[in-house]
Give the backbone structure.
Amino acid sequence: MTPEEILQGLYDETLKGNGPRVLELTHQALALDMTPGSLLFDALIPALEEVGARFERGDYFVPEMLIAGRAMAGSMEILRPLLADTGVETIGKFVMGTVKGDVHDIGKNLVNIMLEGAGFEVIDLGVQVAPEKFVAAIEEHEPDIVGFSAFLTTTMPMFKANLNALEKAGLRDKVIVMVGGAPVTQEYADVVGADGYAADASATVKRAKALLKERRSKVPA
């Protein structure tokens, strides 16, 4: 296969969610000395963007998004260390976690895959993440954005607890705070004082990019 055919194949098979074929094509590409950056920016990211667009149009649903995301994640496992070695610039750093009291992570994991596909470095803290753990991770990793995920109405109040913990630690102004999860609304995000809210994985990527651009435009050169 030519490099062009491999890139087209990676794009098509990621859209279909054909994980084994995506892995096979990734190995073929590297054997041909194609750069990890070209696979990411010329095939995988465009495929994930198309997945997001199809989801927004109602052509794809959560299962299709998950399958495509997992197909890409397999390739990313191989490419991530190679991208780090080649110094490919990430667009931003994102700390993510499901709040204390909540063990749901399918939505969070899908968001993580989409964020990585868009060029973010994602530090996933997992589930049942206490406010002090978010604080420690922000101090250690100095992310651009932190994401709080909640799937239950009973755990949504942890957003406010987390924000209070950031305030107390003097970190609130140093990081963009995004919230999301099935029961979460824009109105609730506004009430607790989050900077951003997104209803699904595709929207999260768009909102994160917009918030980051807005934040950076305000920073003096």
